[in-house]
Structure formats: C-alpha cells, structure tokens
Amino acid sequence: MKSFFCLFFSIIVFGCQKENSGKSTSILTNSVVISKPKIDTVKTDKKAKEALEFCKANNFNTDFCILIDMSLHSGLKRFFIYDLKKNEISKQYLVGHGCGTSSWSEDSTKENPPFSNEDNSHLTSLGKYKIGARGYSNWGVHVKYLMHGLEETNNNALKRIIVFHSWNMMSDNEIYPKGSPEGWGCPTVSNKAFKEIDPLLKNSKKPVLMWIYN
Fold first, then answer.
1. Which domain range does residue 141 map to?
2. Percentage of the chain with pLDDT > 90?
3. Most CB contacts within 10 A, which of 2, 59, 63, 184?
4. What contacts 129, CB < 8 A, 6 or more positions away?
5. What is the pLDDT of residues 68-115, one digit of tens each?
6. What is 175-188 written as a DSSP string?
7. What pLDDT, on a 0 to 100 scale, did the predictor assign at position 23?
8. DSSP codes of every residue in 54-65
9. Number of domains in the chain
C-alpha cells in the first residue's frame, strides 16, 4: 500500500512539473525582447561642435541649436535641443520626415529614409537651416516657423513650403519599433513638444540653427 501511494504521488508531481515546464517554454517562446538602438552621443557631440563654430561665424544663437539625426529610427527621439553652453542634449523629441512615394501618414520609411531637395518629391532635405519667421499653420497647434535652407541640398525649402510645425498624429513618447507618421517633407513634432520648443525660438534674439543630417 505504501508503495502504491509513493507511486501515485510521484505521478502527480511529475505531471505538474511537466505542465509547468510547458507553460514556461510557451511564455519564453512567445515573448519577444526588442533591443532599442542607442543614440551615438559621440556623433551628436561632434555635430554640435561643428554647429557652434557655424553659429559663431554667422551670428546665430550660440546658446542652443536644433540637431535632427535622420540616421536614427523614426520611432526614437532623434530631435535634439542641444545646449551649446553645457555641451549636452537638453531635450529630445520624436520628429517625422517625408514619405516620398510611400503612403502619407504611415511609417513605411521608418529606417533609412530617402531625401531630396526637389519640388513635389515629398521628401525631407538634409542640411543646415535658419529658422525663420513665426506664422500661422493649419496643422497641430496652428503655429509654424519658416525654414531657410542654407545649402545646395536644401535651398528649395521655402519654395517647397517646408516648415517646422506640430502634428496631432505625432506621439510624445518613443514608439519604437513602430515609426512616426510621415508627411510631405516637413520636420514635425507632437503638439506638446512644439509648445516646449516654441518659446525658445520665439524669444531668441538671434537666428536659430536647425541641422538635419544623416
């Protein structure tokens, strides 16, 4: 009788262990660990150093500038307010880019997007910009800033009506591995982000540099 109960108990324990083992395997199999890419701070600091020299030489604001690293996934915060006095990123935001021939408002080119300076390309242009006049926008919080392209890669910005504005579809938080919605070439941020950036631009006594690079 004693042997019978020992055998019965062993069967129950083994069965439970097998059932629990199956559940653990299932959870591990179905779980996907996504590793989020990190910002290359060395690259950003190098760009900031170059930006500061440009700002000094061209009488731009030397307190801060805007750096946008388009080599980063669009679901990551790749829009940087860079403090040129402290040599550090003070704020980070999501920013959208142009969709090109892809569908508007989707994230088809969230990685390695193409760029262009051509009219009607619906693509973002790389290069340095001078943030211009503040005006009314039909998008987001209804405020925009003109963008004056300072290089051959972006000198059609005004003609193409490429402006800095907010967009209701943009998120406040990182959404990786999903990408930010893509527009027609304007760098777009969330409404909340724009409300934080707007006073910096509006109160600046000198032109502010925005540098979009890859």
1. 41-213
2. 82
3. 184
4. 147, 148, 149, 150, 154, 157, 209, 210, 211, 212
5. 999 999 999 999 999 999 999 999 999 999 999 999 999 999 999 999
6. -TTS----BSS--E
7. 38
8. HHHHTT--SSEE
9. 1
Name the DSSP letter for residue 68: E
Tokens of 86: 């402290």
**pTM, rounded to two decimals:** 0.84
Please classify residue 195 by burial: count the beta carbons closer than 10 Å to its beta carbon, then call 0-12 exposed, 13-18 middle and 19+ buried.
Answer: middle
CATH of the domain at 151: 2.40.440.10
Q: Which two tokens stand for residue 126?
A: 């790389």
13 within domain boundaries: no
Q: Is residue 208 part of a domain?
A: yes
Residue 204 CB neighbours (<10 A)? 14
Pairing of strands 163-166, 127-136: unpaired
Is 31 part of a structural domain of the chain?
no
Question: Is 8 among the domain residues?
Answer: no
pLDDT in tens, 24-60: 333 333 456 678 888 899 999 999 999 999 999 999 9
Stated length of the chain:
214
